Amino acid sequence: MANATISVIMTVYNAEKYLKESIESVLSQTYTDLQFIIVDDGSTDHTADIVRGFSDPRIELHQLPENRHIAYATNYAFRKIKGAYTAIIDGDDIWYPDKLEKQLAFLKAHPELNGCFTWVDLIDENGDLCNDRLADLKKYFESSTDSREEWLRFFFFYGNRLNNPSSLIESSTIPVVGDHSLFYIQAMDMEWWVRFTKKFTFGIVEEPLVKYRRILSSDANVSSPSEEHDARFYNEYMHIRYHMFDDLADDLFIRAFGDYFRCPDSASPDELACEKALLAGDCRKDFLGTPLALLKIEALLDRPETARLLKDKYHFSTRECGQLTGLHLYNDRYIQGISFKHPHLEKELHDLHQAAYEREQKIMELNGQVHERQYTIEKNKLEIQALKDQDQMAQAHIGRLNGLLAEKEQQMEQAASQNRETVAALEQRIAALRQAGSDQEAVIAQLQQSLSEVTGSTSWKATAPLRRIGKLFRKSDQTRKS
Q1: How many whole angstroms separate alpha carbon 289 and alpha carbon 375?
Q2: Confidence grade of residue 94 (pLDDT, cut at 50, 70, 90)
Q3: Does the pTM exceed 0.70?
Q4: pLDDT 10s digits, 365-400
Q5: How many Å apart are CA 441 and CA 410, to the nearest integer?
Q6: How far is CA 168 from CA 58, 113, 180, in A?
Q7: Sequence-separated (6 or more) residues with CB below 8 Å from residue 66
Q8: How many of the other CB atoms lie within 10 Å of CB of 386?
Q9: What stretches of 110-172 show up as alpha helix (H) in DSSP?
């Protein structure tokens, strides 16, 4: 990792106003082993001249003959990558000097990760910090290292809080994830990071290492706020949610979204397909996910097997589908006709739309509560059954222990009885020995008494000289024989 080249990608279109400062922030990185790929997406201003004004050999300028937009230009840059790692920066953002060095150190400390992002400071069109003015956005980008499951749930229910110019990833992941989709303009980054998260993991360096520019005075760039940009992002976000479960491994889908299943025990391919379709149409954050979700529901209802499954297990059939298709999901002729024939009713129409939307939101909220309660009930049933099973196992175990205890008690009683018999026999033996000892002592006493009487008699004393002469004769005889 210490000698790894980092390929830095910058795609630009008519970016002359802020380009020089952005390029300088890359070239002044404390980590210097860089390949700096700059793709000029058909600019008509002095963008290319500004790039050529730098003599640094690490810069590679590629000019497209016409403007093809950022997705195409980024995919073009992907083909030029030579480094082991890839970072992205926009032509109006600024990196702090130690950004790449700190990110490489973070990845070295976390080898299980395939990439990382950082926090950001927000600057306006004049380069002034605007963290206080955009406090909510500043806080939004201050995410933390979470699991893939947590990030997939966040993408689906809330959107994107990853800052693209703060990214650093292993270049080997790019061919696996694939190119950026040319369909997306406003949410291009989010769509690609969703696909990345289905395959790989990433972390967050919880420190602002990027100055992320927000153009507050106009809609000059794609990230600046405007009604058109908001509408485009919303529409693209609907498509991202529609495709969220495409190519998502079943086990990862269950881990990430199992808590939101209509039926917690769903596991077969058809059951998971039903859960995916119903979840796409029952999005907790926004009811307007329904129109695209109906395409998935339509396909399931067209198959007899899944149609029966939807009705029998998920209580969803033509009747429930008709409740959805009876709503104003698209800008239909009826709504257009009112708007064209009665321009003065546009505000009332807007209010009706808002009221309908709020009702739909309330319906979705209530449906969500019902589903959550159903899930809780099913979960409680499973827990109760598990407790019953555990109780049965415990009772059986107690029965086995009681049997062993009774058997042990019987063995102990038998042993105690045998011990009592042994003790009684030993006591009798001891008594007999004591009696025998007492009898022997009486005999000894009598013998001693008899001896005393013999040695004390007159005849014994009178024959004492004879016994001494006899002892001498015996001793002389023994000497002769030897």
Answers
A1: 22
A2: very high
A3: no
A4: 676 576 667 667 877 887 888 888 888 888 888 888
A5: 46
A6: 18, 11, 17
A7: 42
A8: 10
A9: 135-140, 148-157
What was the pLDDT predicted at 285?
Answer: 47
The one-letter amino acid code at 421 reads E
* CA gap 214, 135 in Å, rounded: 13
* CB proximity list for 106: less than 8 A, separation 6 or greater: 116, 203, 205
Residue 127: DSSP 8-state: S
Residues in the chain: 482
CATH number of 1-221: 3.90.550.10
Angle at which helix 318-325 crosses helix 290-301, to 10 degrees, equals 150
Kindly report each contact of residues 131-136 with a partner whose C-beta sits within 8 Å and lies 24 or more positions away, as own/partner: 133/216, 134/214
Angle between helix 290-301 and 304-314 (nearest 10): 120
Report how far residue 342's alpha carbon sits from residue 349's, in angstroms, rounded to the nearest whole number: 10
The pLDDT tens digits of the residues spanning 420-453 come to: 888 788 888 888 888 887 888 887 788 788 777 7
Instruction: Please choose, from the candidates 265, 288, 278, 267, the residue with its C-alpha nearest in 3D space to the C-alpha of residue 310.
Output: 278
Q: Is the pLDDT of residue 465 over 90?
A: no
Strands 59-63 and 203-213: unpaired
- Distance between CA atoms of 126 and 72, rounded to whole angstroms? 29
Under the banding of pLDDT at 50, 70 and 90, the label for residue 287 is: very low
Tally Cβ neighbours within 10 Å of residue 12: 25
| Cβ contact 205:108 at 8 Å | no
How far apart are the C-alpha atoms of 443 and 172, rounded to whole Å?
Answer: 111
Q: Which helix (H) or strand (E) holds 250?
A: helix 250-257
First-residue to last-residue Cα distance in the chain = 110
Percent of the chain residues past pLDDT 70, beyond the cut: 83
State how far the Cα of 73 lies from the Cα of 62, in Å rounded to an integer.
Answer: 10
Q: Annotate 341-374 with DSSP letters as a single string.
A: H-GGGHHHHHHHHHHHHHHHHHHHHHHHHHHHHH
Identify the three-state secondary structure at position 419.
helix
pLDDT digits (tens, 9 = 90+) for 188-238: 999 999 999 999 999 999 999 999 998 876 555 555 556 777 778 888 888
> CA distances (Å), 255 to each of 113, 190, 303, 441, in order?
19, 21, 27, 94
Strand, coil or helix: 225:
coil
